[in-house]
Write a structure and sequence with these properties.
CATH superfamily of the largest domain in chain A: Bira Bifunctional Protein, Domain 2
Largest sheet of chain A: 9 strands, mixed
Oligomer: homodimer
Shape of chain A: elongated
Number of helices of chain A: 16
CATH class of the largest domain in chain A: Alpha Beta
Helix content of chain A: 25-40%
């Protein structure tokens, strides 16, 4: 006998939690489709040379890579790089701006630790081939609707613009230090001023400039407040002007669509890692679960598709790390049942089995979820099973029920019982649910 | 620039086909839940020693196996072995009979050839922990409902019983040749009598016995016909009696649930490969697509969970190979659109963008799928896009619409246009869809 176990870092659910998880997935899918994003899926395995074309990402380093025959393969570690490959490969068959959603698992061989999985779901939306701020607005509005439909009332979207810090570095002729500065500032919230100052000193930025950087990235609030504060910063280049305009325009669009500053603020501390972003970036946090960090984040990336295609296609996207989010908020979801069924039909004698099947068919045809207990176990055992899977109703069927062509329905919570004719069974069940 | 391509044998869809595929998945999921199967998912990667515990299966040999750090991993090649592991691992947290459905991808590194994929979806249902023929009936009724809901009117389920041939071999003291005989008979339909006879001769079965085997496995038809023919075969052991009883009982149950012999027949040629089956087995074929072979098959397996657990738990299941089925029948599915959206809102001027967002929100709130074209491209370009993604309606919004707080809706098929107030927009759209 072999001990049944999984590789560490690989989670799976019992039915009760899987049902709650699937319900979340359905909500997200529905919102994505209501906003006109079309579904795609990409293979779990990609050619390593294609998937890992862009060097340097942490996630890429953690990918599961192996050889099968002569083929160097890697499992996808996010949904964005496969999207870039997909768009380039199917360029002539797609219509741009291309809007797609994708809800699939990704794999990262990172250190297993609490709340970190090596396999988890990402739910992504992206718009490829639009330079308009309407695309940013669309992604943010859709994300906000997802948050709302998931009932996450404590969520707030923090929006930033990579262009602000870029423009400042440009004005100081420090643009070559861009990556190092971003990496340090990204740690500000977790590690504080002192640590970030030390790091920036080490890479050769002087104290006065560090002071300015810290002041700059600590700007946050409503759009007009942020713009006012930024206007006081003396940066005179195109990138800065564009960033200010973007913030203003995006704010107008979000407000026009009914959002307000309970839903979002601007916060220039948001860097969103080192990856491919070039413009607006954002992260969503739950004020009741700050330990989660960002539950939904994204931004604009101008260069990604270019790894695989001669046309430059700007993209913007958002990604929800659903597996982690689910684990944090599953207590907020109200699901007791370990079965999608509403009624369990209990055959109490071999002679009634065909009648049970007839009853099940009748109830099924009324679009109710039902099944017949597959066996002739004692009533107490069948009831015990019903109790354990938390099914709301059972239909007891013995010789008496068969003879009279009725069913006896019992509410498993209240214990209340009532008999009904087969013809009225579905209606009675609906009333009792 | 890197050429964007996938490893061979790995398929992906354009949005139009992905939408049709997802629609099929939704139908199957709905039917499974209506029959009270609970969802689970298992990780893509399992420990190789656990997943490949049972030697000999073709599919296992084709698994993607590799080492990461010190861990020997393998990607799942079906959903049944992971289920056995799952049931054993979570034994004390599950309620039996355990009914689950699982719709996930599996990976097999087989030779790439037309219609064969190295990654494909399986949609499985299983009942673990019931010895009753009610479980067989449940699996078959659910499979039949899936077929019906997918609109596959030319499907027929062919049911067989492993016990018949087993009992015959037992009676002839040939049970040690069981595997070889099954392997040969499995090829009967494709390779014919002559080839099978040669093979059986080679493994040492005499001509007279081969004749009997061929007569036995060629028995097919309605239950009473099959039982009548089998009664003439002189086999006097318990296994044979049980097989006959099983066929009779299952037939009674299927008829009680409203099935008839247009839905299913018994056909003793059905072997269902060499895998773990021990009792009733079945395969479903489409008479209009015989080249597909079995689109949904399964059966009872008594020993699988026992690889991982001390309790013996009998199981029965059915599996749909959805990716192949989809490719064969996608022409039967009526989907033109490359977007789930019903309305595209077209901003014809920068000044109308906020109004467009307001309109989109209003329409979205009425649970219609809508998005704003993310950019201010010329009307002809926007209309061309609408045409290409085959969206049914567009809402043209220019200065006039903004001023009057109306929208102008155009049906992209008929070209018909009509204007409506913002308040009546959703109702008008519903009428035009």
């Amino acid at each position: 006998m072999i001990t049944p176990k999984r590789p560490s870092g690989f989670n799976e659910f019992l039915p009760k939690d899987q049902m709650a998880f699937n319900a979340m997935m359905s909500v997200i899918k529905l919102v994505y489709e209501q906003h006109g994003y079309a579904p795609i899926e990409t293979p779990a395995l990609e050619l390593a040379e294609v998937l890992l074309a862009k060097e340097g990402g942490e996630s890429a380093k953690q990918s599961y890579r192996f050889t099968k025959g002569d083929t160097d393969l890697a499992m996808r570690f996010d949904l964005t790089v496969p999207l870039a490959r997909y768009v380039a490969e199917h360029y002539h068959e797609l219509s741009f701006p291309f809007r797609r959603y994708q809800m699939q698992e990704v794999w990262r061989g990172e250190k297993a630790q609490a709340g970190r999985y090596r396999q988890f779901y990402q739910c992504d939306i992206d718009i490829i081939g639009s330079n308009s701020l309407l695309a940013e607005a669309d992604i943010l509005l859709t994300s906000n609707d997802v948050i709302k439909e998931l009932g996450l009332k404590d969520a707030i979207i923090k929006i930033s613009h990579r262009g602000v810090l870029n423009a400042w570095l440009e004005s100081k002729k420090l643009k070559h230090l861009n990556t190092e500065v971003l990496r340090s500032v990204d740690k500000l919230e977790k590690q504080g001023d002192k640590k970030v100052t030390e790091e920036l000193l080490k890479i050769g930025i002087n104290k006065n400039d560090i002071q300015q950087i810290l002041e700059l990235v600590k700007i946050s609030g409503k759009a007009d407040e942020v713009i006012k504060k930024l206007s006081l910063v003396k940066i005179d280049n195109e990138e800065f002007k564009k960033a200010l305009n973007d913030i203003k325009e995006l704010d107008t669009y979000l407000k026009a669509a009914g959002l307000n500053n309970k839903n979002y603020i601007f916060d220039l501390k948001i860097i969103r890692g080192l990856d491919y972003y070039t413009g607006i970036v954002f992260e969503t946090v739950l004020t009741k679960n700050p330990e989660l960090g960002s539950i939904c984040g994204g931004g604009r990336y101008d260069n990604l598709v270019g790894f695989y295609h001669k046309e430059k296609l700007s993209g913007i996207g958002a990604s929800i790390g659903l597996s982690r989010l689910f684990n944090a908020i599953k207590d907020r979801i109200n699901n007791d049942q370990s079965t999608p069924a509403q009624v369990l039909i209990m055959p109490l004698d071999k002679s009634v089995v065909p009648y049970c099947l007839e009853v099940a068919k009748k109830i099924n045809q009324a679009k109710l979820n039902v099944f017949v207990y597959p066996g002739l176990d004692k009533m107490s055992k069948q009831l015990n099973y019903a109790n354990k899977i938390k099914i709301p109703l059972v239909a007891l069927i013995g010789e008496n029920e068969l003879k009279k062509k009725i069913i006896t329905i019992k509410n498993m919570k209240t214990g209340k019982q009532s008999s009904t004719s087969l013809a009225k069974a579905a209606a009675t069940i609906r009333k009792m649910l």
